[in-house]
């Protein structure tokens, strides 16, 4: 494989979202990712959401570029395979509940003794320590306890959720960052391997901006504000004449003046009270009303054309249909053509971030369960007869 992570071997002992999304990112940039799955059924994500035949479309995306091996971790032979793979791995990524790998005999103490340079990324609901460590925790719980749900939605409605598994993917991104920092420490500084302890709760909490000091010093409890960005004015979602919405971010001082001029309110552009964000925030309701009255008299297209001409950041609310049709997404290779088993063509999301010298790539879509078992075992030095013996013993599929 080519890419900036070429030569890095990653062993994935995870399922569903958090750990597999992290390894997907590593695989897109050249890491060899070996995903260990249970022989019966494999990762449950294979059957989640919308299907193509008997396989989830989500699976094909989430597991692209990975090698799948079907190993029974309830057998001594299966555990031995994982230990041998960990010996040559740079990173192990797992999202068992804390203590789960230890019960199997694959804990950090065991694997790090076999490979002192190993990095282990451990993603869990609450982290590997603390009074809540043993509780089950999915991304939704992380979003709730991390503070995100309390601040999401309209003030007169119950707390809302983002329409995707944002808690899981935030944890994945923190896991990737931690893994890369640990690898750098090993490869460049000659350091030892280490545990990267990632909590779903803390990953959400880490993006909650100034939530804590505002509460501690000012007693401010940030709550739901609909489409507005509290304390940053004006920045909101505004209705249009044709039943749509536009997002307008006019919250810097010069942009605010351009916005007010564009909507026919030069008096507000020059109003001394509106010269700074602090002053504008004191009149946020009035400003939102003025901008909303202007937007409601125009279509989405007309409103955006006027704002674009004034160099004011604004945009429509995109559906997936808008995304797929948008020329900017296409020009940035963010909509890729893929081929599924049987020759079916399907559009898939592109790769982020864009590296100019060593870009990521899609080499294959999510594989069939155990598609790479024989090849990976052969790479460990097992001959066909030994592999047949393991298969007969129920250790692999």
From TrEMBL:
Keywords: Transferase. This is CaiB/BaiF CoA-transferase family protein. InterPro entries: CoA-transferase_III_domain, CoA-Trfase_fam_III, CoA-Trfase_III_dom3_sf, CoA-Trfase_III_dom_1_sf. It holds the Pfam family CoA_transf_3.
């Amino acid at each position: 494989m080519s890419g900036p992570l070429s030569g890095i071997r990653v062993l994935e002992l995870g399922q569903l979202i958090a750990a597999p999304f992290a390894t997907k990112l590593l695989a897109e940039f050249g890491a060899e990712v070996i995903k260990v799955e249970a022989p019966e059924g494999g990762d449950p994500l294979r059957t989640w959401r919308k299907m193509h035949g008997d396989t989830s479309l989500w699976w094909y995306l989430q597991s692209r570029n990975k090698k799948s091996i079907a190993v029974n971790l309830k057998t001594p032979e299966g555990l031995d395979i994982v230990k041998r793979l960990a010996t040559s791995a740079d990173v192990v990524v797992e999202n068992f509940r804390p203590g789960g790998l230890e019960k199997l005999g694959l804990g950090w103490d065991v694997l790090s003794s076999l490979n002192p340079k190993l990095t282990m990324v451990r993603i869990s609901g609450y982290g590997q320590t603390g009074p809540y460590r043993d509780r089950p925790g999915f991304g939704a719980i992380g979003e709730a306890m991390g503070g995100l749900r309390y601040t999401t939605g309209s003030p007169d409605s119950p707390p809302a959720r983002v329409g995707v598994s944002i808690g899981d993917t935030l944890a994945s991104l923190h896991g990737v960052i931690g893994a890369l920092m640990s690898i750098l420490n090993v490869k460049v500084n000659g350091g030892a391997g280490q545990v990267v302890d990632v909590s779903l709760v803390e990953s959400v909490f880490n993006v909650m901006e100034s939530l804590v000091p505002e509460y501690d010093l000012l007693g401010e409890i940030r709550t739901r504000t609909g489409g507005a960005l509290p304390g940053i004015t004006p920045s909101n979602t505004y209705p249009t004449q044709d039943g749509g919405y536009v997002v307008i971010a006019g919250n810097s001082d010069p942009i605010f003046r351009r916005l007010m001029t564009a909507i026919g309110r030069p008096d507000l552009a020059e109003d001394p009270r509106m010269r700074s964000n602090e002053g504008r925030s004191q009149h946020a309701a009035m400003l939102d009303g003025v901008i909303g009255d202007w937007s409601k008299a125009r279509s989405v297209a007309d409103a955006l054309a006027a704002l674009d001409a004034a160099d004011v950041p604004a945009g429509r609310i995109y559906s997936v249909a808008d995304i797929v049709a948008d020329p900017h997404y296409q020009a940035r290779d963010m909509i890729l053509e893929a081929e599924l088993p049987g020759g079916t063509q399907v559009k898939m999301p592109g790769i982020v971030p864009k590296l100019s010298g060593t870009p990521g790539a899609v080499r294959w879509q999510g594989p069939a369960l155990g598609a790479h078992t024989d090849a990976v075992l052969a790479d460990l030095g097992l001959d066909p007869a030994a592999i047949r013996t393991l298969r007969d013993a129920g250790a692999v599929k």
